[in-house]
UniProtKB/TrEMBL annotation:
EC number(s) stated in the UniProt entry for this protein: 2.5.1.75
Enzyme kind, highest EC tier: transferase
Protein name per its UniProtKB record: tRNA dimethylallyltransferase
Entry coiled-coil feature ranges: none
Annotated binding of ATP, by residue: G10, P11, T12, A13, I14, G15, K16, T17
Record field: catalytic activity: adenosine(37) in tRNA + dimethylallyl diphosphate = N(6)-dimethylallyladenosine(37) in tRNA + diphosphate
Molecular-function GO terms, alphabetical: tRNA dimethylallyltransferase activity
Keywords of this entry: ATP-binding, Magnesium, Nucleotide-binding, Transferase, tRNA processing
Binding, substrate: T12, A13, I14, G15, K16, T17
Organism: Aquimarina gracilis
Site (Interaction with substrate tRNA): S101, R123
Assembly information from the UniProt record: Monomer.
C-alpha cells in the first residue's frame, strides 16, 4: 500500500478538528494543520485553534508554531509541511492534513506556481499604501495592473491583493501570467474528504462559535494584541472588527455582529473554492466517522 494523505476540508465551524482527531486515532497517525490563522501562538481564541485537550489526544503539527511577528508565507508552509510529511511517512502509512485555507491545502496537494522574488522596498511601499489609503485603493490599483487576477482573487483578502501588486511591480508582468495551474506530482496518494451541510446550518454554527469565543475571552485576547494591529497576521476576521471597537469606531455589539457577518462571508468563499475541486468526496458534517473510514479503506485497497 502506498503512503496516503487524508485531507479534511470544509468551511469554518463545520467540525473538521473533531473528525481529524477521530480519523487520526483510527489510522494511528498524526495531523498536519493547514489553517493559516492557527499558525500564530498569540492567536488562539479568535482562530478557534484546537484546545489543549484536543491537542493532547493526537500529535498535531503547525499549530501555533510561529509568532505574529514572523513572516511566514504559503511557500514556506509548502516546504515545511512536505518535509514533515516525508518524516511522518517513514513511521506510518497515513497522515492527515486538515484546514479551511484552500490555498494552503492546494500548496500541499497540487503545488504552488513559481513567482519572482519581491524586493523588500517594494513590499514596504505597498504596505504603506495600504495603511495610508486602505484596501479599496489597492483593489483599484490591481484592477488596472492585472484585470484578469482582479476578477479571480478574493478582494477582501488584503494579503493576497498586496501580494499580487508586489509581484506586478517587481516583475513588470501581470500576477496572472505566473499562474500555470500545472499540478505537481506528490510521492503519496491523496484522499480528500469534505464536510458540509445546509448553508443556514453553517451560518448558525458560525454565529454560535463567535458567541462562545466572546465568552472565552476574545475581547481580552485582541486587547493584548492591539499594539501589533498593523501586522499582517492580525488583519483577519475576529481581530480587525474588535480593533475598530477599541478605537471607538464601533460599539461592541456591532463589532460582534460584524465578526459573524464576515465569518459567514469567509465560509461562503471557502465553499466556492472547494467546490471547484472534483477530487473531494463530500459528507454531511454529522456523518458517522465509521462511514468515512469505510470510504477511505475502499479507496486504499
Amino acid at each position: 500500500m502506498n503512503n496516503t494523505l487524508i485531507v479534511i476540508i470544509g468551511p469554518t465551524a463545520i467540525g473538521k478538528t473533531s473528525l481529524s482527531i477521530s480519523l487520526a486515532k483510527h489510522f494511528n497517525c498524526e495531523i498536519v494543520s493547514a489553517d493559516s490563522r492557527q499558525f500564530y501562538s498569540e492567536m488562539s481564541i479568535g482562530t478557534a485553534a484546537p484546545s489543549e485537550e484536543e491537542l493532547s489526544q493526537v500529535q498535531h503539527h503547525f499549530i501555533q508554531h510561529k509568532t505574529i511577528k514572523d513572516t511566514y508565507t504559503v511557500g514556506d508552509f509548502e516546504k515545511d509541511a512536505l518535509e514533515k510529511l516525508n518524516t511522518l511517512f517513514t513511521k506510518e502509512k497515513y497522515a492527515i492534513l486538515v484546514g479551511g485555507s484552500g490555498l494552503y491545502i492546494d500548496a500541499i496537494t497540487k503545488g504552488l506556481d513559481t513567482f519572482p522574488n519581491v524586493d523588500s522596498n517594494i513590499r514596504e511601499k505597498v504596505r504603506e499604501e495600504f495603511e495610508n489609503f486602505g484596501i479599496e485603493h489597492l483593489q483599484d490599483r490591481l484592477k488596472k495592473m492585472d484585470p484578469i487576477h482582479y476578477h479571480n482573487v478574493d478582494l477582501q483578502n488584503t494579503h493576497r491583493v498586496m501580494r499580487a501588486i508586489e509581484v506586478c511591480l517587481s516583475s513588470g508582468k501581470p500576477y496572472s501570467s505566473f499562474l500555470t495551474r500545472s499540478k505537481k506530482n506528490r510521492p503519496f496518494d491523496i484522499i480528500k474528504i469534505g464536510l458540509t451541510t445546509d448553508r443556514q446550518i453553517i451560518y448558525d454554527r458560525i454565529n454560535l462559535r463567535v458567541e462562545v469565543m466572546m465568552k472565552e475571552g476574545l475581547l481580552n485576547e485582541v486587547k493584548s494584541l492591539y499594539p501589533y494591529k498593523s501586522l499582517n497576521a492580525l488583519n483577519t476576521v475576529g481581530y480587525k472588527e474588535i480593533f475598530n471597537y477599541l478605537e471607538g469606531h464601533w460599539d461592541l455589539d456591532f463589532a460582534i455582529s460584524e465578526i459573524k457577518k464576515n465569518t459567514r462571508r469567509f465560509a461562503k468563499r471557502q465553499l466556492t473554492w472547494f467546490r471547484k475541486d472534483s477530487e473531494i468526496k463530500w459528507f454531511d458534517y454529522q456523518e458517522d466517522a465509521k462511514n468515512i473510514i469505510d470510504y477511505i479503506n475502499k479507496k486504499t485497497l
